[in-house]
Design brief:
Blueprint (H helix, E strand, L loop, with lengths): L14 H22 L3 E10 L5 E12 L3 E3 L5 H7 L2 H22 L6 E5 L2 H5 L3 H12 L6 E6 H5 L5 H9 L4 E7 L6 H6 L4 E4 L1 H5 L8 H17 L3 E4 L5 H9 L4 E2 L10 H12 L4
Parallel strand pairs: 2-4, 4-5, 5-6, 6-7, 7-8, 8-9
Antiparallel strand pairs: 1-2, 1-9, 2-3
The structure holds ligand C2E and magnesium ion (3 copies).
Protein name: Diguanylate cyclase/phosphodiesterase with PAS/PAC sensor(S)
Organism: Asanoa ishikariensis
């Protein structure tokens, strides 16, 4: 077949690509029955206050426990679920599961006021049913609305049919908090940012990644983070740094006024029981 682009090149048969595509097709086809068979699991990663080191929130991150391929990461199937439309039901399942878990944590550890942060895909953000789904998950779980945060990427926000402000206002009307995920990797439409009813910017990993000791390039990365933190604070938003991996990054981010951090340094995504254990030990006197 002639290659796309029409420059007279011919696409060569690429066995690796063919294998990848076959796997994707098979995975996409298996998604609905995987949901029915309860093969998905949610792990939770701590989001920690840089001010006092306390766990403020956990981000819910989906995984697929595939019967033959093992544990699959969301990057391997969320895109497929978006394409097939299954993301609407899968996303609702994550929302229900995460709110139920957080509702239990809130009941057992009310003083922790642990928030759960759930990722929404572009299709979910544009779905008119999303507000009812969020309200339903809150109702079913008894989780106070301000203990649920929804993470939306900039592209998901901009994909809302030219009505991002209205779409996000409807979401915010449920009382939940809204965060922009991977901030700085998308459109970064600063004009919109000012109008959107959001609470938090999650600073994309690559910015934090660039902050390394003894690396001259890190000066630039640090200036960008500094500017973004100032921008966020000027707009009344809090900032969460993603992919925090080293004590040096914690020190620099804290010095720049970043509010909270998430990453390997604080803890990797874990089963609910591990979060329960963290909440329990935080409650013990002297900790
Ligand atoms: P994200 O929302 O930006 O989530 C953060 C990703 O960074 C997670 O990858 C997390 O495991 C990873 N991470 C954590 N600590 C570190 C660190 O120290 N260094 C680095 N380099 N990475 C770290 P994960 O779990 O593979 O998820 C990938 C993406 O899949 C997420 O990115 C999110 O966009 C999407 N995703 C996950 N769960 C859901 C879901 O339930 N619904 C939707 N729509 N998307 C989801
Ligand atoms: Mg996220
Ligand atoms: Mg992110
Ligand atoms: Mg991401």
């Amino acid at each position: 077949a002639k290659a796309e682009g029409g420059r007279g090149r011919w696409a060569r048969y690429d066995p690796e690509r063919a294998a990848r595509e076959a796997t994707s097709t098979a995975l996409a086809a298996a998604l609905p029955s995987a949901l029915a068979r309860d093969e998905f699991v949610v792990e939770y990663q701590p989001i920690v206050s840089l001010g006092n080191g306390g766990m403020r929130a956990v981000e819910a991150l989906i995984r697929w426990q595939h019967p033959t391929l093992g544990l699959l990461s969301p990057d391997q199937f969320i895109g497929l679920a978006e394409e097939t439309g299954l993301i609407i039901r899968l996303g609702q399942w994550v929302l229900e599961r995460s709110c139920a878990e957080a509702g239990r944590w809130h009941k057992e550890f009310p003083r922790a006021r642990l928030m759960v942060s759930v990722n929404l895909s572009a299709r979910q953000v544009s779905d008119p049913e999303i507000v009812d789904q969020v309200a339903g998950a809150l109702r079913n779980s008894g989780l106070p609305p301000d203990l649920l945060q929804l993470e939306l990427t900039e592209s998901a926000v901009m994909a809302t049919g030219g009505e991002p402000v209205r779409a996000l206002r409807r979401l915010a009307s449920t009382g939940v908090r809204l965060a922009i995920d991977d901030f700085g990797t998308g459109y970064s439409n600063l004009a919109y940012l000012r109008q959107l009813p959001i609470h938090t910017l999650k600073l994309a990993g690559p910015f934090v990644d660039g902050m390394r000791a003894h690396d001259p390039a890190s000066v630039v990365a640090e200036r960008i983070v500094d500017a973004l933190v100032r921008l966020a604070h000027a707009l009344g938003l809090s900032v969460t740094a993603e992919s925090v991996e080293t004590p040096e990054q914690v020190e620099r981010l804290t010095a720049l006024g970043c509010d909270s951090g998430q990453g390997r340094h604080f803890g990797t995504p874990a089963a609910p029981s591990a979060i329960t254990a963290l909440l329990r030990s935080a409650e013990m006197p002297g900790s």
